[in-house]
From TrEMBL, chain A:
Coiled coil regions in record: 49-76
Keywords of the record: Coiled coil, Cytoplasm, Cytoskeleton, Microtubule, Nucleus, Phosphoprotein
Cell location: Cytoplasm, Cytoskeleton; Nucleus
Name under which the protein is recorded: 65-kDa microtubule-associated protein 3-like isoform X1
PANTHER family linked to this entry: 65-KDA MICROTUBULE-ASSOCIATED PROTEIN 3, PROTEIN REGULATOR OF CYTOKINESIS 1 PRC1-RELATED
Organism lineage string: Eukaryota, Viridiplantae, Streptophyta, Embryophyta, Tracheophyta
Top-rank taxon: Eukaryota
Record GO cellular component, one term: nucleus
UniProtKB/TrEMBL annotation, chain B:
Membrane-traversing stretches: none
Signal sequence segment: none
InterPro entries: WD40/YVTN_repeat-like_dom_sf, WD40_repeat_dom_sf, WD40_rpt
Name of the protein this chain belongs to: Mitotic checkpoint protein BUB3.1-like isoform X1
Record localization: Chromosome, Centromere, Kinetochore; Cytoplasm, Cytoskeleton, Phragmoplast; Cytoplasm, Cytoskeleton, Spindle; Nucleus
Species of provenance: Salvia divinorum (Maria pastora)
SUPFAM superfamilies referenced in this protein's UniProt entry, alphabetically: WD40 repeat-like
Swiss-Prot/TrEMBL keywords: Cell cycle, Cell division, Centromere, Chromosome, Chromosome partition, Kinetochore, Meiosis, Mitosis, Nucleus, Repeat, WD repeat
Gene3D superfamilies for this protein: YVTN repeat-like/Quinoprotein amine dehydrogenase
Amino acid sequence: MSEGENKMLTLTETTCGTLLNELQIIWEEVGESDTEKDRMLLELERECLEVYRRKVDQANKCRAQLRQAIADAEAELAAICSSIGEPPVHIRQSDQSTGSLKAELRAILPQIEEMRKRKSDRKNQFIEVNGEIQSIKNEIYGGGYASKDVAVNETDLSLRKLEELHIELQALENVKCERLKHVHEHLNYLYIGCSVIGLDFKQTVSDIHPSLGEPEGSKDISNGTIEQLRTAIQRMQEVKIQRMQQLRDLASSLLELWNLMDTPIEEQQIFQKVTCNIAASEDEITEPGMLSADFIKYVNAEVSRLEELKVSKMKELVFKKRGELEDICRKTHLIPESDNPVDLAIEAVESGAVDASCVLEQIELQISKVREEALNRKDVLEKVEKWMAACDEESWLEEYNRDDNRYSAVRGAHLVLKRAEKARILVNKLPAMVETLASKITAWEKENGVYFTYDGVRLLSMLEDYMTLRQEKELERKRQRDQKKLHGQLLTEQEALYGSKPSPMKNQSAKKGARLSCGGAATSRRLSLGGNMLQTPRHDMPPPAKATPVIRNAKKTERITQDSLKEDGFQILSGRRGLDLAGLPANQHSLNLLNCRETESPMMRKPFSPITSTDSSRSNATKFLGDLNQKHNDMMPKMLTSNNTPFTTPSKIISAAEEENRMPQVMATPVPSTPSTMPIPMHLAMTPMQKPLPSATMQIAITPAKSVDEEIEYSFEEKRAGFVLPRSHLVNLMQVL
Amino acid sequence: MASAPPPSTGRELLSPPTDGISNLRFSNHSDHLLVSSWDKSVRLYDATANALRGEFMHGGAVLDCCFHDDTSGFSASADHTVRRLVFNYNREDVLGRHDGPVRCIEYSYATGQVITGSWDKTLKCWDPRSSSGQDRSLVGTYTQPERVYSMSLVGNRLVVATAGRHVNVYDLRNMSQPEQRRESSLKYQTRCVRCYPNGTGYALSSVEGRVAMEFFDLSETGQSKKYAFKCHRKSEAGRDIVYPVNAIAFHPIYGTFATGGCDGYVNVWDGNNKKRLYQYTKYPTSIAALSFSRDGRLLAVASSYTYEEGDKTHEPDAIFVRSVNEVEVKPKPKMLPNPAS
């Protein structure tokens, strides 16, 4: 090729030379002047130079452009390097290495390209980080935080800056995490709280921020939300504490009521969880619904139910107590104060105006007062009862005396006869009774400074009334007797005159009966009148005659017994059969007598030891004995048969009883002989062996050797167990004996 | 009386106590029988199956026992203790103690309390529900005039018979004072006291073959109904032998009652009509205790020497359970249409 170029050059040169030659030829032919020729040649030469100069200028310009481009590129490179914070990669070593400018430019261009790429990468990174920071900040500080920082500062994209941003991002992320945790904690707490006080958690939370209610997805963590959460929790806590207080109050009242009313466990069980939390602190109560409004309402309902129950019970109690008070008053024949504060209070309780408990207290007080008074009056009252009963008996007797058929042999007549006999004795004792009663009452009145009232009436005046009535009756009776006598005389006279005696004085007796019945009715009416007025039925009163023991003078009894024995010993012994018929009380008597005869008996009974009778039937028997001894002995069996209580409580024979209480073996022989002589129908029916036997023995014959033991009874079991009473007791017992 | 004659003594229970029987009682819920004995044991029998169902050994002779419910009971022991026995687990614990041997024990369904009477002259009430420990379970101590010999309760009434022929009647709702203080109508030592099932009174037996029928009602009409009668006696070769009446048991339905004496006889009486209804054939030795089952169809009889004549050789101790024929216990009203009570 170079050959070709050269050839071309040479060709060009030849062309120029030939052209010049040709021109010279032409000129020669034309014959141009030399000047012309010269001028022509100069012009040619100037034109040629011009062309050259233009071309050089052009080339020069091009070169300058090239240089500019390179410089530009280098500048850009440097800028990029500096912005991304790297040392400039391209340090001008081009002077030596690469020759031409174009090559230089070519070399620099890819470098620029790469740096640009790196820069844009870096920038993207920045944008990304910034975006993240921005979004976190937005989350934390709310949407209001504008994106002013979004434009990345192009000038500083260095790694260091990036690092800084990363750190910032990290910090923000931490903050976010922290807050998220915080929010979760709050939510948890809120959840538990809501469940305890029975609120809808979702609703509550959604009100604060909709995102919180979602089970999934990010939660709002902005300051506002957290603040709201906090206040919500605080509010909830307040509610909780308030309700807890409420519940605690309810629980304590529940416990109190249970305690008061002995509520069954099953009923309590339902509210056990309420009461067991009574002492729990606020955060110990975690059971769902424990503090819900419904639950509290429920408990409240229970409390009010119990409360009502209590009130009704209290009322009941009050009424019962009042009943008791009235009862006591009635029993003791006291008139309760009429305008009693209690009555008023009870009305108040019924209307619910006053607390029942205070009324109860009042009534209690009253009861104790009345009780005290009753105790004070008891002594007199007992006597009054006896007197009343005697009066009853008296009026009965009067009525009975009026009965013409009283001696006819109807079934049960013997019972009536016996009663009449008893009544007569009682009536005889009435004046003395009244007297002692009156003296007792006066003593009482003197002591207490008030009148002794019986169902509101002064007792003393009642007695006086009774006495005057009695006297009147006495007079009446006397008058009747006189009249009868007179009548008798009249009859005798008539008889003397006309011979025969008119038949019995029927009209007379009828008259007498009528009159007496008036008196009797008056008495009974009077006596029962007071009772009726004050609503004390007479038959309510315990009949004092037999049931209430009458302490009799031991000495008197003894005397009677001894007297009777002395005077009528034979009769009594011979009348033993009859006495036995009368059953145990009489029996006992005969036993005593028997025992004193049977001196060979190992029993250590002292004959005729003082006997205190506490049983009136017994005493009656004794009295009968005494009476009868003075009267007709042949009446005795009859009288005693009419005494138809075979086994009344045996008399309390103080010393004798003690001896009788000893173990049977000690008393061996005489014992059964007595019971065997008792031909009471019941025994005939029930007891197979009946024959009276002269000497019977109990087959139990363990006689303890020790003399002390002989004094004390022991059961078989005690003997078997070897049980011995402590010494101190023995001494006491000895002293008693 | 067309029915075939019942077996003479009834069926004898297997494996009886080895020493004197102090008491036996049927349960209120089943035909289980609780037996206390001087051999320091309390035994539980199934009377229908004739089987021993449980046995508890104590530190001393057991003087009385009673049921709590069908699964537990109480015992009174001469070692001064009061024990609670749980049959299912064969467990026992001490409810408390007295200062002397404990003679009688009763469980009150009305108050849920156990009541014990002792020779230390006291009555004690216990709450069996409270945890063990004397100070916890003891409800109250009530001094008696003498050593307690027998006790019975009906409803809220408790009758306590002691030595010295004292009889105290309590209202369980107010134990501070006896409701009534009485003396036995009988002249000799009290052996046994039992309340009428209708709650109007009690029967009391003495060592001298006699039983008194008493009434709580203190009015004249009430007291006029009381009486006493003789029983458990024998005349032999011109000598009258009188035996102690150890046991009384009321029929739960008819209100008639059986008495058992040291003569080995069991008699059935109709207290209202004052008649003896039946006498069972003689048992080998003294009748120590009697109990009717809850429906009155069975009668448990403890034939066991009661030491009335001291230590001597005697017949072996045995428990007989006999089925009760209606004619033996049903009252036969005589011409009186309305009997006293």
